[in-house]
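Re: Re: ligand-bound prediction request (bumping)

Still looking for help on this. To restate: I need the protein modeled with 2-succinylbenzoate bound, output as structure tokens. Inputs repeated here so nobody has to scroll up.
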Amino acid sequence: MKIERITLHHINMPLASPFRTSRWVENDRECVLVELQAEGLTGWGECVATQNCTYSYETVKTNWLILEDFLLPAILGKDLADIAAYRAAISHVTGHPMAKAGLEMALWDVFAQAAGVSLSRFLGGEGDRVAVGVSVGIQPTTAALLEKVEGYLAQGYRRVKLKIKPGRDVADTAAVRRAYPDLMLQVDANSAYRLADAEVLKALDDLALLLIEQPLAHDDIFDHAKLQAQLQTPLCLDESITSVDHARWALEMDACRIINIKPGRVGGMFEGKLIHDYCLARGVPVWMGGMLETGIGRAANIALATLSGFSLPGDISASARYYRQDLITEPFVLNPDSTLSVPTAPGLGVTIDKQRLQQVRQRRQVYPQ
Ligand code: OSB
Ligand code: MG
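Reply:
Sorry for the wait, this slipped through. Here it is.
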């Protein structure tokens, strides 16, 4: 596949409501989109970094810089046989998984289109729906949280993830558990705790949670192993797993018992599939994480989540949970069984709303310049 032309778009989409985690707030989704032209086909990709280095060190501007200076020059004008050839062409670039993943997504889209199949089938996935849940940000009060959760349950979500932080953890989670004894419930701390906080986290053991996500630092597998030894509830790592090697290290150390896979965090769907395959072989459950993606990144996440090892519901909610107006002509809607339908058209299977793209675009650059 001859890579002829790549256009970067810097966009900023207002979120329907602010999303508050333990350490930062997202008010809008600012990100880089990749539009790639090859042999008459157009592929789209989305880099998941936001404007601030909060979740990881990458930002919208570092994504743009790494793409412009290193990744695009490595493939423009080249003939790439497959995704493995792309990985080989950029193997000299250290780090910056989100920049790499955005470009890789556009290539997956093009290769699947060339094969005439949906991205789900191209990746080896099966089924026409994926089980999903909703990630609920930290609310001003416990009462507000209960109201928010009730609203999502009324919409049909059957799995809820609560963001927690010190001081807004056990009581909030216990209140939701009391209101919904059978709800599939889990929490995500985004690295807000230290190992010394183990006593607080142990109190969560009584709340029948599916998992506790990333309580400790983003670069710490060691203390997570010490923490897991003190807990009944499975730990799930998000930020700490950026490659299949990290997954292996974490599982061998018993630093977690479940893994959240985000293609953007691990450098793309290829690496995400490696983690999936590794965990499936070991009997370790995985689930699809989310980064408040637009319809483009959401379509990719849904496709990867059709692999058989994704046994827990993903953070892949309907478009309306994030945006009043998405970037695609047919937004994702929640099915009554708390699933989203898998696009069936070749490639990502979504159509970009060009008018919406123009409204939210801050900058556009075509390569080669
Ligand atoms: O830690 O999983 C996270 C959103 C942005 C950054 C990090 C995280 C999240 C979410 C939302 O929890 C998941 C989603 O619905 O996209
Ligand atoms: Mg997380």
